[in-house]
């Protein structure tokens, strides 16, 4: 039996959702709960409620207790259910229209002009920022129904392809003050905007370097838990693998956003995705989930996987090479 | 070192580069280097990590050299120390290029292999345990600081080009103006209780405060010398008013407080001028082309309104034209009326010079060229002001053309040119005034009516011209003042008593002058006595 599958649900601090085996090509678009588009129409004074993000897979209707994800294996609510997992740090705001929001680390500031929502919480008021899935691949993936993004409060994230820092700011909101986001961006124009974002948020470390040469910024980055890559380059798998060998801890996860046009504009999208997945496995990166980003993007997919997964299993080494 | 199944026991010195410096680490147990793949196990916990690698010493140094793979001075120093200690050892480095440089400069053989990468990973994951005496918070802060400075170095960040200064300076300027106005009004009101006339005589605010500060109580005005503050006529007026002022007396303490307030006002005024100079300098440094186009104040206000120079550069020219008039714009759009034609741009000198009809056109042209200069300033590499000067020249030429077109039609014929002002007859009709025939002093109604008639028609009547060579005093008595003036040679006047014509060509017009004695050649003798 493959070392992936069932044993993974049992062991390890960060088990994936439920008992699943092998990479799946799940191309479903997210249906339920019409997550309203970019602009939530929150008029002033309208009553809005913010609740933690939960998959619709949790059909037994139990409320999320707000407990931290503390690695209870597959059984996170103690009921033995195998429903989907909530994404800690990500919330849904319900009002006239629903929106995906994150809790603002710097209350009162809007990074790229997005809507901010203030919710009274007893004496204090908490501010949330709306997350636009048309601008951010990560938001599109979450709304598409990804199981786990592995970016959670306290995590260390290496973000390749940070651009102007719009999604980076949301990731920084999720990881909170205890976590760190290392944002790597090569372009100078975007780098300036990224620097401005990093000025306001102390958990973002800006790196203006080419991600193809991780040894050039090795002194700035410690070991990370998650790598998120949105670089849009033909050799992006190699780039991610290089960075993973340098900085990603064993058992760490990666999320790669693949643009089919960018890798090979002549081949059909599914073939491109399959090719990328194959490249990943060769580099000791094991893909676990694949999700297309319909309806927010065309011919885009996000692949989530684990790096050197045999650590998690407690095995001594990689499985013997298959014929 | 291990390659495949060969085993050579060697003392490895690992070279680890972290944000705070170099860490030469010594590998203690070479046997563990056997299997590359299981190396990660050795670094699972800090204790295990310590068994495997031992920190030699710590050194802080600059990282910009490292990024490019060059050797900096400090680096050379430590490496020389290592070479001195154990010459036969090998140095493991993560960067192949750096390894090459070290080898050629210091003759230290370097290794770079997958095993090395694994070791590096292990050490990186346990870096806190290996480096004693450095808490993780400090480490994080150092990493952040280093990342920021490296990024700034990469982006060639220069502190002159920060537009936050401009925005803050212009806001402060506005605040200062408001405060200054408040204080000055208060000062005037307060001191006006004691000496109200001063407020009406001295209109300039700063002069007022300086004057009050110097003199204090009203009674000191006569004795004090305020010539350095006030011009002479004002000084005289003030001194005169001080004598007969109708304000009340105030005590020493009150005067002291007023003087304190004046001190404040003077200080703030000086600071304001200083701030304005500072703003001008910064504007020239940050956005020279914009300054040339619209001036420093308007340029600074545009930047402050948009939030930053880069934001301003993102606006299209039509927005630049209407920045500052948003309320009027959206009101007009909602009620389907005409939208405003200018916002903050209105205060630019080019728009101010044009006639009311052309202001709209000029503001649009100016906004278009200004948008170009803003983009050039915000995103361009050079910082010369040539482009701004060229564009300004273009707009000025257009402005001149527009005004000329108002006078001359472009496609006009002779008929159009001929349609100028309506023809007005300006010929002078001279009528003989018989009043000068008789030299007897007669003041009759008829004459007065005649005079009034003459004045109404506005036609100069010259009956008889008297040329009186007058050298002497002309006594001119008025209700309370006696003004004596010397009349020079060649005085001639017309019989209407309304003009005195000096033979040198000057005309002094004195209407409704009460002349006690009409000057006739006979009377001239009398006046010579005076």
From TrEMBL, chain A:
Any one GO BP annotation for this protein: box C/D sno(s)RNA 3'-end processing
Residues covered by region (Disordered): 1-54
Keyword NAD among UniProt keywords: no
Keyword tags: Methyltransferase, Nucleus, Ribonucleoprotein, RNA-binding, rRNA processing, S-adenosyl-L-methionine, Transferase
The reaction(s) this protein catalyses: L-glutaminyl-[histone H2A] + S-adenosyl-L-methionine = N(5)-methyl-L-glutaminyl-[histone H2A] + S-adenosyl-L-homocysteine + H(+)
Keyword Transcription regulation: no
Source domain of life: Eukaryota
Gene Ontology CC terms, in alphabetical order: box C/D methylation guide snoRNP complex; Cajal body; small-subunit processome
SUPFAM superfamilies in the cross-refs: S-adenosyl-L-methionine-dependent methyltransferases
Subcellular location: Nucleus, Nucleolus
GO terms assigned for molecular function: histone H2AQ104 methyltransferase activity; RNA binding; rRNA methyltransferase activity
Bias (Gly residues): 1-22, 30-43
Family (UniProt): Belongs to the methyltransferase superfamily. Fibrillarin family.
PANTHER family: FIBRILLARIN, RRNA 2-O-METHYLTRANSFERASE FIBRILLARIN
NCBIfam families recorded: PRK04266.1-2
Name of the protein this chain belongs to: rRNA 2'-O-methyltransferase fibrillarin
TrEMBL record, chain B:
UniProt-annotated location(s): Nucleus, Nucleolus
Annotated TM spans: 12-29, 52-71, 473-495
Keywords: Membrane, Nucleus, Ribosome biogenesis, Transmembrane, Transmembrane helix
GO biological process: ribosome biogenesis
Pfam families (alphabetical): Nop (PF01798)
GO CC annotation: box C/D methylation guide snoRNP complex; small-subunit processome
Keyword Coiled coil in annotation: no
Entry-linked SUPFAM superfamilies: Nop domain
Example GO molecular function: snoRNA binding
All copies of domain Nop, residue ranges: 286-404
PANTHER family: NUCLEOLAR PROTEIN 5 NUCLEOLAR PROTEIN NOP5 NOP58, NUCLEOLAR PROTEIN 58
Family as reported in the entry's similarity comment: Belongs to the NOP5/NOP56 family.
Subunit structure: Core component of box C/D small nucleolar ribonucleoprotein (snoRNP) particles; the core proteins SNU13, NOP56, NOP58 and FBL or FBLL1 assemble stepwise onto the snoRNA. Interacts with NOLC1/Nopp140. Interacts with NOPCHAP1, NUFIP1, RUVBL1 and RUVBL2; NOPCHAP1 bridges the association of NOP58 with RUVBL1:RUVBL2 and NUFIP1. Interacts with PIH1D1. Part of the small subunit (SSU) processome, composed of more than 70 proteins and the RNA chaperone small nucleolar RNA (snoRNA) U3.
Protein name: Nucleolar protein 58
Lineage: Eukaryota, Metazoa, Chordata, Craniata, Vertebrata
GN (gene name): NOP58
């Amino acid at each position: 039996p493959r070392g992936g599958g069932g044993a993974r649900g049992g062991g390890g601090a960060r088990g994936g959702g439920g008992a699943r085996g092998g990479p799946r090509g799940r191309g479903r678009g997210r249906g339920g709960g019409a997550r309203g588009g970019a602009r939530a129409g929150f008029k002033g004074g309208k009553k809005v409620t913010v609740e933690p993000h939960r998959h619709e897979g949790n059909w037994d209707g139990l409320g999320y207790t707000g407990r931290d994800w503390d690695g209870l294996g597959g059984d996170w609510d103690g009921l033995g259910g195998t429903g989907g997992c909530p994404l800690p740090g990500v919330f849904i705001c319900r009002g006239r229209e629903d929106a995906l929001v994150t809790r603002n680390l710097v209350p009162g500031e809007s990074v790229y002009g997005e809507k901010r929502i203030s919710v009274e919480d007893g004496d204090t008021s908490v501010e949330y920022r709306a997350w636009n899935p048309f601008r951010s691949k990560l938001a599109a993936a979450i709304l598409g129904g990804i199981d786990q993004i592995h970016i959670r409060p306290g995590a260390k994230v290496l973000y390749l392809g940070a651009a102007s820092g719009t999604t980076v700011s949301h990731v920084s909101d999720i990881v909170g003050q205890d976590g760190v986001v290392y944002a790597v961006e090569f372009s100078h124009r975007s780098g300036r905007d990224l620097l401005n974002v990093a000025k306001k948020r102390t958990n973002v470390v800006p790196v203006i370097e080419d991600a193809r040469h991780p040894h050039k910024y090795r002194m700035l980055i410690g070991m990370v838990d998650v790598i998120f890559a949105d670089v849009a380059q033909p050799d992006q798998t190699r780039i991610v693998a290089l960075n993973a060998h340098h900085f990603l801890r064993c058992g760490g996860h990666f999320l790669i956003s693949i643009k089919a046009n960018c890798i090979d504009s002549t081949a059909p999208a599914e073939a491109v995705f399959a090719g990328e997945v194959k490249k990943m496995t060769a580099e000791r990166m094991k893909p676990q989930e694949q999700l297309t980003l319909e309806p927010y993007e065309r011919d885009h997919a996000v692949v989530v996987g684990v790096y050197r997964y045999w650590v998690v299993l407690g095995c001594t080494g990689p499985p013997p090479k298959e014929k | 070192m291990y390659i495949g199944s060969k085993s050579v026991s060697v003392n490895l010195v690992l070279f680890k580069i972290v944000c705070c410096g170099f860490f030469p680490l010594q590998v203690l147990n070479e046997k563990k280097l056997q299997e590359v793949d299981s190396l990660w196990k050795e670094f699972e916990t800090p204790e295990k990590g310590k068994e495997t690698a031992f920190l030699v010493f710590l050194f802080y140094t600059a990282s910009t050299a490292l990024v490019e793979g060059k050797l900096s001075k400090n680096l050379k120093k430590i490496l020389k120390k290592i070479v001195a200690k154990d010459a036969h050892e090998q140095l493991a480095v993560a960067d192949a290029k750096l390894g090459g440089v070290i080898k050629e400069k210091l003759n230290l053989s370097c290794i770079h292999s997958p095993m090395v990468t694994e070791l590096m990973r292990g050490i990186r994951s346990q870096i806190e345990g290996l480096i004693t005496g450095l808490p993780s918070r400090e480490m994080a802060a150092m990493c952040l600081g280093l990342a920021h400075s490296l990024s700034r170095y990469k982006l060639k960040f220069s502190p002159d080009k920060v537009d936050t200064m401009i925005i803050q300076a212009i806001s402060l300027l506005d605040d200062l103006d408001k405060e200054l106005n408040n204080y000055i009004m208060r000062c005037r009101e307060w001191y006006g209780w004691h000496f109200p006339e001063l407020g009406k005589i001295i209109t300039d605010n700063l002069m007022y405060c300086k004057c009050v500060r110097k003199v204090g109580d009203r009674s000191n005005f006569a004795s004090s010398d305020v010539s350095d503050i006030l011009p002479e006529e004002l000084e005289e007026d003030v001194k005169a008013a001080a004598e007969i002022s109708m304000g009340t007396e105030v005590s020493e303490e009150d005067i002291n407080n007023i003087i304190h307030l004046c001190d404040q006002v003077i200080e703030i005024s000086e600071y304001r001028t200083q701030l304005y100079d500072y703003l001008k300098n910064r504007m020239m440094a940050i956005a020279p082309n914009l300054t040339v186009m619209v001036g420093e104040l308007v340029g600074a206000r545009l930047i402050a309104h948009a939030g930053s120079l880069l934001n301003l550069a993102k606006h299209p020219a039509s927005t630049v034209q209407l920045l500052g008039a948003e309320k009027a714009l959206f009101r007009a759009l909602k009620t389907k009326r005409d939208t405003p034609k200018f916002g903050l741009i209105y205060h630019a000198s080019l728009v101010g010079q044009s006639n009311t009809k052309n202001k709209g056109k000029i503001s649009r042209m100016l906004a278009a060229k200004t948008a170009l200069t803003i983009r050039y300033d915000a995103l361009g590499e050079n910082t010369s002001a040539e482009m701004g000067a060229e564009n300004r020249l273009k707009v000025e030429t257009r402005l001149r053309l527009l005004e000329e077109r108002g006078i001359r039609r472009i496609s006009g014929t002779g008929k159009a040119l001929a349609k100028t002002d309506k023809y007005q007859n300006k010929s002078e009709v001279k009528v003989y005034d018989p009043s000068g025939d008789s030299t007897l002093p007669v003041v009759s109604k008829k004459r007065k009516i005649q005079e009034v008639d003459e004045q109404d028609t506005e036609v100069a009547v010259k009956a008889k011209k008297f040329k009186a060579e007058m050298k002497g005093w002309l006594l001119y008595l008025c209700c309370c003042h006696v003004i004596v003036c010397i009349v020079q040679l060649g005085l001639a006047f017309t019989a209407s008593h309304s003009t005195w014509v000096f033979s040198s060509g000057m005309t002094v017009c004195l209407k409704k002058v009460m002349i006690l004695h009409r000057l006739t050649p006979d009377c001239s003798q009398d006046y010579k006595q005076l």
